[in-house]
Amino acid sequence: MARSILASTLFLLTLLLTYVTSARAASNSTQCPSDPYLDPRNDPCNDLGYIANNTLTAIAFSLVLLVALIQTYQIIYKGGKWMLPMVFGEYSTSQSHACVVYVIGFGFRFALHYNPDSLGIYIAEYLMIVLSPCFFIATNYVLLGRLAREIDCVHQVLIPVRRLTLIFVLSDVTTFIIQAAGASITTSTVYSTAMAGLHIFLAGLVLQMASVCSFCVVYARFLYKVHAEEPAIWMRDSKQHWNSDWRTIAAAAAISCIGILIRSCYRVAEVAQGFHGALTSSETAFYLGDTLPLFVAIVIYVPFWPGKFITTRLAPSVNELQNSRDLSLSRGTLGYNHEVPSAMLDDY
Fold first, then answer.
1. Is 170 left (phi over 0), alpha (psi -120 to 50) or beta?
2. CB of 66 within 8 A of CB of 142?
C-alpha cells in the first residue's frame, strides 16, 4: 500500500513538474533559426543538439513498452505486486509502473523530431526519461528485503531489512526531488539561474549514484555472507531447475543494479559537461549510456520474474521470530508487556 502511494505520488510529481517547466519554457524568447534542421548542433533553440532519429526512438519505445506489457501480465498472473514501481517507471519511459513514465518520455522524442526547437517538449521528454529510473532503483531496494526474507537470511543484511528499505527508498525520493527542482530551475532564461539549476540537478544525480553504489555494496556483501556462512542455504536449490533456484533471481538483481549504476555514471558525466557537452549532444551516447543499460536493468526481470521465485507472503523470518521470543521472555521477566511489535509484520 505504502509503495503504491509512493509510486503514484512520484508519478504525479513528475507530471506536475513537466507541466510547470513546459509552461515556463513556452515563454522563452530566444530567436530560433527559420530552418531547425539545417544546423542542429549550433542551433541555440535545440537543446538536444541533434535531430532525434525516429527509427531509434521507435525501436526503444517499442521494446520498453513490450517489457512493460509483459511485466504487467506477469504481475497479474504470476504474482509480485511489489514490482509495480518498476513497471510504473517503464510506462513513463515504458516498464510496469516505472516503465509508464519511461515510455511516455520516448513518445516525446517523436514530437522532438518534428519540433526540434520546442523547449517545452524537450523539458517533458528530458524529465520523463531522466526521473523514471528512480522507480526502477526503488524496486531493487525492495527486492533485497524480499529475497532475504524468502531464504531466511535477513541477519546477513548489513542493515535491518525494514530500515534498509526505508532508508534507500527515502534517499531515492530525496534525490528525485533534488533532481526535479534542479531541472525546473534550468528552464530559467537567466543564465546564472539556469546554471544554478544545473548544479542542483547534478548534485541530485551524484547523490543518487552514491545511494546506488552504497546499495550495491550492501547487496554484494549480503550475497558474500550467505555464500561464506550459510552454505546449506546457498546450495539449497542446487538440484532444482534454474527457474526454481533463488540464486537465479539474485544474479538477475545484480545485473539490474549494474545496469542502473552504469546509467547513473553516464548521467553524472553528461550533466557535469554542461548544457552543450559532447555527451549531451550525442544521440549515440544517449542510447549506449542511458537507454541500453536501463533496458538491460528492466528486461532481465522478464525471464527471471521475481514473483516466480519469491512466492511466500511477507511474515517474520525464523530469526526475527526467535529474536521476538527472546525479547518477549526478557520483557516478561521484567514485568513488561511482552507483545510482539506489530512493525515486525509490516508488509515491506
1. alpha
2. no
Q: pTM of the full predicted structure?
A: 0.79
294/90 Cα distance (integer angstroms): 10
β-partners of residue 100 are 89
**Cα 230 versus chain centre, distance:** 30
pLDDT(170) > 70 = yes
Q: Are 92 and 11 in contact (CB under 8 A)?
A: yes
Does the pLDDT at position 324 exceed 80? no
Q: What is the DSSP letter of 186?
A: T
Full DSSP string of 100-116: HHHHHHHHHHHHHHH-T
Show the cell assigned to 124: 517533458
The answer to whether 344 and 320 are in contact (CB under 8 A) is: yes
Contact call for residues 249 and 257 (beta carbons, < 8 A): no
Specify the 3-state DSSP secondary structure of 200: helix
Q: Tell me the residue type at 93.
A: T
Four-CA torsion 238, 244, 250, 252, nearest 10 degrees? 120
CB atoms within 10 A of CB 331: 13
SS3 336: coil
Query: What one-character DSSP code corresponds to residue 99?
Result: E
Asked whether 184 and 250 are in contact (CB, 8 A), the reply is: no
Q: In whole angstroms, what is the distance from residue 249 CA to residue 178 CA?
A: 32
The predicted-structure confidence for 209-220, as pLDDT tens digits, reads as follows 999 999 999 999
Residue with cell 523514471: 132
Lowest mean pLDDT among 71-85, 154-168, 184-198, 256-270: 71-85
Q: What is the mean pLDDT of the chain?
A: 79
DSSP state of 341: P
Residue 79 near residue 308 (C-beta atoms within 8 A): yes
